[in-house]
Amino acid sequence: MSVLLYAIITLGSLGLVYGLGLAFASKKFHVEVDPKIDKISEILPNVNCGACGYPGCSAYAEAIVGKGADINLCAPGGDEVVESISKIMGIEATSADKKSAIIYCQSGGSHNTKLRYNYQGISTCKAAVLVSGGPNACNYGCVFQYDCVNACMFDAMHIDRNGMINVDKGKCTACGACVTACPRNLIELVSTIKRVHILCSSHDKGGIARKACGNETACIACGLCVKKCPKEAITIDDNLAIIDYEKCINCGICADVCPTSAIYDPLKKVRAEKKADAKLKAETVKKKLEKQKENNFEDDKK
Fold first, then answer.
1. Is 115 or 107 the better-scoring residue by pLDDT?
2. CA 29 from centre of chain
3. 158 and 192 share a domain?
4. How far, in Å, CA of 215 to CA of 114, rounded?
């Protein structure tokens, strides 16, 4: 009985000593948490996507308050979150530069690229590129196993009936998961303000690139885009045209002159239609003038 009592007293004493020690340590090493961190954490969407460059929303909130991180880095939150954080921090709100994923390749399925063999291995892009460089004839293009689509947490990437991957800019948060997932580095996060893109990554020479691309959308490094660009925003690097988005003004001239449709601009069709209308009107006016001259000539003869 005395042994049991001794054990109880010993354990109780140790518990009391450790408890007092922990209580002392908690007060001695207590760190005050700025209430702004909790307020900002509540405002952030808490999806922990990493688009801001920090491990999660809580880490980003701490970085804003403790390290002065920019308040416009939360892509999913948008301008509404920026405005709310600016009020908490007492600083001017700066509009978030919304970015979206751009895929520099227009292949994606058997309908859009030429195949060297029928891949039947593990259904991942990383596995596919290990087998003789991938199933498609282009060694630089998408191997259409859709690692990027599977990595997207926001349902912003979809596969159409031809196997092409389309990005929903409205849903894309620029978290970068798809960028990391692509083994061929075909995806980049670009400001949604920028409209014109060179959707090709092939460094093969023109003839080879064109032959490998079933859609004939490969860049052949002809240099027409470089010559026509009014801002010198395009250069040719290792048989591939590259746009400097800092210089690009979205004029779309490069897309208009590109012979292989490697350069994408959603307004290209609109400009072509306007040009066709203008040409038709000019021809109509010219015919009217010629007809009027003929009539005047006939009147003079009379």
1. 115
2. 44
3. yes
4. 9
Residues 139 and 172 grouped into a single domain? yes
Structure tokens that stand for 155 in this block:
């349902």
**45 and 75, same structural domain?**
yes
Q: Which of the two residues, 186 and 276, has the higher pLDDT score?
A: 186
User: Do residue 81 and residue 103 come from a single domain?
Assistant: no
- Length of the chain counted residue by residue: 302
- 56 and 186 in a single domain? The answer is no
Q: What residues form DSSP beta bridges with 240?
A: 237
Which residue's structure tokens are 């470089």?
226
> Given pLDDT bands bounded at 50, 70 and 90, which one contains residue 299?
low
| Placement of tokens 């303000």 in the chain | 193
Do 202 and 141 meet the contact criterion of CB atoms below 8 Å apart?
yes
Residue-range definition of the domain harbouring residue 51: 35-89
Q: Are residues 121 and 182 in the same domain?
A: yes
Residue 43: both structure tokens together? 């405002």
Res 230 pLDDT > 60: yes
The Cα–Cα gap between 66 and 223 comes to 49
Beta bridge partners of 166: 158
Residues 106, 246 within the same domain: yes
The rounded radius of gyration (Å) of the Cα atoms in the chain is: 31
Q: Which of 88-97, 147-156, 230-239 has the lowest mean pLDDT?
A: 88-97
Would residue 297 count as lying in a domain?
no
Whether pLDDT at 101 is above 90: yes
